[in-house]
Amino acid sequence: MMSGSEKSPTLSFHHLGRMTSNIHFVVPILGGYWTPFSQARHFCLQEGIPVGSRNEDLSKMEWTINDWLFINHHRDIKVASRGSHIQPGLQGLFWLTSYKEVDEGCTVELLKEGKHDWEVQQWLRRYGMNEFHWTSFVDDENITMLGGSEPVFTGTVFRWFTQEEVDRKVRDSNAVEISVLMDFL
Questions:
Q1: What is the CB neighbour count within 10 angstroms for residue 9?
Q2: Which runs of consecutive H residues, i.e. helices, occur in the chain?
């Protein structure tokens, strides 16, 4: 977190952003809290949100958390799987709490924590999350491309199949079609 005396980093962007209906480009600037997957998993288990059981499935938990946020009317928070800015190589979830768009080519300042962000921070703490840090960055991973800064309901349900179940489904289908296999992926 930045203290009041620290100057916010300033960035300049060219040819990065998305087109708006006015036929000009804007650059989304995001702010929020990054948490390791273990903290997000704890939240999911506490709330009965289904998550995968394998490490490679952890990045997909953003879908079920966003579904939960959408259903429970927390439309001012969105999550996305993302690496840590402070600990490179460490993956986790970014809880988007602040968002603004600036015109492409402008010099912009990254977002600072505000009242709403602090309220979300307290909300995360009530759910037992205590390992997180504030971060602000340009949406270079298109987190806001679908739904903007609000969670999007996907209806994702985690259901794991054993190799035997997959083999039986393929064998019983009398053909190996991508649509049959997609039921199991």
A1: 9
A2: 37-47, 61-71, 115-126, 163-173, 178-182
Q: Quick one: what percent of the chain has pLDDT higher than 70?
A: 73
Question: Could you tell me if 77 and 96 are in contact, meaning their C-beta atoms sit under 8 angstroms apart?
Answer: yes
What's the rounded Cα separation, in Å, for the pair 38 and 24?
Answer: 40
What tokens were used for 83?
């690496």
Give Cα 175 distance to the centre of its chain.
37
pTM of the model: 0.71
The token pair that represents 25 in the structure block: 């480009």
Q: Which two tokens stand for residue 13?
A: 């962007």
> Quick check: 104 and 14 in contact, CB under 8 A?
yes
Domain range summary for the chain, segments of one domain joined by +: 10-154, 156-185
| Of residues 137, 1, 2, 10, the one with CA closest to residue 82 | 137
Q: Is the dihedral of CA 85, 111, 106, 11 positive or negative?
A: negative
- The pLDDT, as a whole number, for residue 28 is 92
Going by pLDDT thresholds of 50, 70 and 90, the confidence category of residue 51 is confident
- SS3 for 68? helix
- Token pair in block for residue 47: 């709330």
Chain position carrying tokens 């903007």: 148
